[in-house]
Amino acid sequence: MRKGKTFIVSGPSGVGKSTVLNALLEKRKNLYFSVSATTREPRPGELDGIHYHFMNVESFRKWIAMEQFLEYAEYVGNFYGTPKRYVDEAMEQGKDVILDIEVQGAIQVTSKRP
Questions:
Q1: Residue 33: how many other CB atoms lie within 10 Å
Q2: b/e string for 49-75 if b means 16 or more Cβ within 10 A?
Q3: How far apart are CA 48 and CA 33, in angstroms?
Q4: 38-39-40-45 Cα dihedral, nearest 10 degrees
Q5: Which of 1, 49, 107, 114 is deepest in the core (most CB within 10 A)?
Q6: Domains of the chain (ranges plus CATH)?
Q7: 71 DSSP β-pair partners
Q8: 14: how many CB neighbours lie within 10 A of its CB?
């Protein structure tokens, strides 16, 4: 079986990343959209595992120490990151993976996985 590839969509807020990704995900069913982890509280209507993987700070820090993130950052007092496990599982299933991350996160990922 073919192993999936990782693609990064990165750019400033408001440039249309979500619009492009939504159109792409509608047309290609073999894509996996990577769901980020965060330590912030869920907003109304957000579901764990769908919008984010919601974690407490202690667990997030443990994942950092165990190198469980492809990338992570702290923003406005909360952590955000891309869990390796879900990306790797999708790629092993032959799915291409799309990451919607900020520029510094993209640099972290490409330094680990050129």
A1: 15
A2: eeebbbbeeeebeebeeeebbbbbeee
A3: 15
A4: 60
A5: 107
A6: 6-112 (3.40.50.300)
A7: 82
A8: 7
